Amino acid sequence: MVAVGRLKKGWAADACTDYQRRSQRLLPIDVHEVRDVPRRKGEPAAQAMAKEAEGIAAALEGAEVVVCLDERGKGLSSRAFADWLGELRDSGRRSVAFVIGGPDGLDPALRERADRLWGLGPATMPHELARVVVMEQIYRAGTLWAGLPYHRD
């Protein structure tokens, strides 16, 4: 996972740490935090997003599949997400990078580069919450593959 900014809220950091720990034996998750670029009042968001995109691009080095979290992206049920990750695994693609942008979103060039845009739903949510949701969905996918009793249809 590549995320802009640090987790500042304890609850979010605790949840992400917990899902990352649980996932290690099922579907390991590496997290790369990219420095967010604060902008001054009246300054265009595009400048900050472009600067953040430079850090994101560096963190994506070697990623076989890039998935950008974006409100325009297609939503997936948990089972459909797990099936999609399984298809990637079965095709030999092992490195999937999930990208979560900063407060203003992702630079358009990053969205265009993505292999997939994934939307977590129509509601806007804080980036910290999005990170928790993505980590949990990755963990859930791993439990589905392993046949563990975490997911209930």
Summarize, please.
The protein is of the alpha/beta class. The chain is built from 5 helices and 5 strands. It has helices at 10-23, 45-59, 78-90, 108-113, 127-146, and strands at residues 2-4, 32-34, 65-74, 96-100, 116-118.
Q: What characteristics describe this protein?
A:
alpha/beta, 5 helices, globular, 153 residues
CATH topology: Alpha/beta knot
Rg is: 15 Å
Instruction: Choose one word for the global shape.
Output: globular
Structural class by secondary-structure content: alpha/beta
CATH H-level name... which superfamily? Answer: SPOUT methyltransferase, trefoil knot domain
Portion in beta strands: 15-25%
End-to-end CA span:
26 Å
CATH class membership = Alpha Beta
Which assembly state applies to the chains in this document? Answer: single chain
Q: Number of DSSP strands?
A: 5
**Nearest-integer average pLDDT:** 93
Helix content: 40-55%
**Main sheet: strands, sense, barrel:** 5 strands, parallel
The largest sheet has its strands arranged as 2-1-4-3-5
Please indicate the count of domains.
Answer: 1
Number of helices: 5
- Give the H and E element order: EHEHEHEHEH
Report on this model:
Helix content is 44%, strand content 16%. The protein is α/β, with parallel strands linked by helices and 153 residues long. Helix 1 (10-23) packs parallel to helix 5 (127-146) and helix 3 (78-90) packs across helix 5 (127-146). It has a 5-stranded parallel β-sheet with strand order 2-1-4-3-5, sandwiched between helices. It has one domain (2-146): SPOUT methyltransferase, trefoil knot domain (Alpha/beta knot, 3-Layer(aba) Sandwich), CATH 3.40.1280.
